[in-house]
Design goal:
heterotrimer, A mainly alpha, B alpha/beta, C alpha+beta, A: mainly alpha, two-stranded parallel sheet, 5 helices, globular, C: alpha+beta, 2 strands, 21% helix, elongated
């Protein structure tokens, strides 16, 4: 994850409390989604950014996951994400995301 | 009449030492994690010049294998070198780093590039055999300095070091003691951009037998900024490059727009020519060292070599309609507007729906050239197969418009799409890499038209959260036709006669 | 209870996936307060 984004996530966790944050991702692939999710839960796996070694355990989802999708107005979701859903490997994204959440997420 | 594409060139520079010392992923790593495994490993996973030359996507970029040929090879490609591959391409060339370092000095107008003596003499003899480097250019190479002098510039004067095969062989001095806009680092990046751009221009002239004195305007469309503290992006790389390439009758300007800039620039060039302002306009760009090894960590993790080891460049010549070459149809320009929104479907709809103006279906366009990044570079990094994702979106739009059936989606992406081959050099892969093949495919009748799409991540500049994109259509030349003027000669005569009569009667009435 | 109710939302979009702004539009309809939205780029 971009270093500036990591810094912002860390600052928001300090400001609002990790339990009050939800991170929503838009990554193009399961693996990239998993890496970003790992970054905001277990720390930056690439050891490059401010979240290195910081285990925030944030609640994190991909926008295409059913948990989030069902909360979004159907027509808006269709307009913003619908066609991209055809392009992405949503199943792969879901399996990567749930694995990371199960392992590292502290606020579910 | 529409302007036409008269020719193009595509060049690469293999720059393994610049991956280590100038790629932003590596410089960032060195700042935050100086002892990391990655920094230790990277040296052992760089390709040799011959390996980079024989890499299939690179051979496609310089025009030696066509995109549909490349698609026949199963990935991974890095372990399938093209037999008999050479650095010379039908559209350009792949230059080794040592020659390129000399080229940086050739294009340096401010005596900033200092090179070590022995390095110069060894590399110079190579460059002297290069057919595009005449005495005028070679004569700009200086004899060189002692290595101690170079070391001193680096140690005490903040010069940006230049390495070759792990050795310090030169540096780019800062152009001002205080102004960070003219620091050694910035000057290095700008000189790399300029040098790779000039290499593209030299190839454009030679590969397409162009009379360089006929070129009247140059539009440069890279992602660099040159200027000083009072005008950070003051610019005109275009004219600076035209000067070295010997375009004595040209002026020019720079167009910026992230990865979308080349497509914007072609539309501008085609418009200038169509409007009759200039007869021949070149659109060009050099490459970037910051992006070298951008996804290197992921490549090593997957057991790949560092694939982002080449700087890219290109040049395209747009001219008046000659009745032969493919036309740029300016009636069918697509654009992502401020009000379009940033959902992927809104973006692609805005770019493709320009077809409606001509009552065309999405399937009426034979080939779409989108963001043609080499998927072998992006997939291990989690960005997916970027061209394929674009084709799926265009196909999905065709399904939504009722022009193809959902079952035909895979077939659509294959028939109207291409496998990506361009280096991840930002603006370089965006739409433009296909222009060389496209011109040939249209001239040979293999396809009748193509849509070129450029997209840009404007939000990276932190000035807006907007996305951007533009598109245009290239089509077979319709042949020279008499321009139908809006008013015939007869009508003009009648109008003048009437005006004179009115004038006379006014005089009489006074 | 909604996952997003009374939460502060951070959006990390992807240029080649779903961009931040598109996620914002979705999240606005689902409740929760967006405190940050950004889009990453790998190319």
């Amino acid at each position: 994850m971009d270093l500036e984004n990591q810094k912002r996530v860390k600052e928001f966790a300090e400001k609002y409390g990790a339990e009050n944050l939800v991170v929503i991702l838009g990554a193009a692939e399961g693996e990239a989604a998993g890496l970003a999710a790992e970054t905001v839960t277990n720390g930056d796996p690439t050891f490059a950014g401010p979240l290195t070694g910081v285990q925030l355990g944030l609640s994190v989802f991909h926008i295409c996951e059913p948990e989030i999708k069902e909360l979004v107005d159907e027509s808006v979701y269709d307009e913003q994400v619908g066609m991209m859903e055809m392009v992405l490997d949503v199943d792969d994204i879901i399996s990567e995301m749930s694995a990371i959440r199960e392992e590292f997420c502290k606020y579910l | 009449m529409n302007s036409v594409i008269l020719g193009s060139s595509y060049i690469m520079v293999h720059a393994p030492d610049m991956v280590i010392h100038n790629g932003s992923t590596q410089t960032t790593e060195r700042a935050v994690n100086p002892n990391s495994e990655y920094l230790k490993e990277i040296k052992n996973n760089l390709r040799t010049f011959d390996q980079a030359v024989a890499y299939l996507p690179n051979q496609a970029y310089i025009g030696n294998i066509a995109p549909d040929e490349l698609a026949k090879y199963e990935m991974p490609w890095f372990d399938k070198p093209l037999e008999g591959a050479t650095r010379d391409g039908r559209f350009g060339e792949i230059m080794p780093q040592d020659e390129f370092i000399l080229l940086m000095q050739i294009v340096d107008a401010f005596d900033l590039v200092k090179l070590e003596k022995e390095f110069v003499s060894a590399a110079k003899s190579k460059l002297m055999n290069h057919p595009l480097f005449d005495e005028g250019l070679i004569g700009r190479i200086k004899e060189g300095e002692d290595s101690a002098a170079i070391q001193k510039y680096v140690d005490t004067e903040h010069a940006e070091p230049i390495y070759n095969e792990g050795q310090l062989v030169g540096c780019v001095k800062r152009a001002h003691d205080i102004d960070i806009n003219l620091s050694g680092h910035v000057m290095f990046e700008n000189l790399v951009s300029k040098a790779s751009n000039v290499l593209a221009l030299l190839n454009l002239v030679s590969k397409n037998k162009i009379n360089k004195e006929e070129i009247e305007y140059v539009i440069e469309c890279s992602e660099e900024a040159c200027g000083d503290v009072n005008q950070r992006g003051g610019g005109n790389f275009a004219k600076a490059c035209a000067e070295v390439a010997g375009f004595v009758n040209a002026t020019g300007s720079d167009t910026r727009g992230f990865c979308a800039a080349p497509t914007h620039a072609i539309i501008e060039a085609a418009s200038l020519v169509k409007a009759g302002v200039f007869k021949k306009v070149v659109v060009c760009a050099g490459g970037s060292t910051a992006k070298l090894g951008m996804n290197g960590k992921d490549h090593l993790k997957k057991g790949y070599p560092i694939l982002e080891d080449t700087i890219g460049g290109f040049a395209v010549l747009i001219g008046e309609n000659d009745g032969v070459n493919p036309e740029i149809n300016l009636d069918l320009v697509g654009r992502h507007t401020v009000g379009t929104g940033s959902s992927p479907q809104a973006v692609i709809t805005s770019l493709v729906s320009s077809l409606d103006k001509a009552g065309m279906k999405i399937t009426d366009v034979d080939k779409y050239s989108v963001e043609m990044q080499n998927p072998e570079v992006t997939k291990p990094a989690g960005a997916g197969d970027v061209p394929l994702a674009n084709y799926k979106m265009i196909g999905a739009l065709a399904v939504k418009r009722g022009e193809i059936d959902k079952k035909e989606l895979a077939e659509f992406t294959e028939k109207h799409g291409m496998t990506g081959w361009a280096p991840t050099q930002g603006h370089i892969p965006s739409g433009i890499p296909y222009l060389g093949f496209c011109r040939e495919d249209i001239l040979s009748g293999k396809i009748k038209n193509a849509m070129i799409i450029g997209k840009g991540s404007l939000f990276l500049g932190r000035m807006t959260n907007l996305f951007d994109g533009v598109s245009f259509i290239i089509e077979a030349n319709k042949g020279l036709q008499e321009e139908k003027s809006a008013v015939s000669e007869e009508e003009v005569k009648t109008l003048i006669a009437k005006a004179l009569k009115d004038f006379a009667s006014n005089l009489l009435n006074e | 209870m909604s996952l997003l109710k009374d939460k502060k939302i951070i959006i990390i979009g992807d240029r080649d996936g779903i961009p931040g702004q598109a996620i914002e539009e979705c999240v606005k309809t689902a409740g929760g307060e967006i405190v940050f939205s950004s889009t990453e780029c790998f190319v």
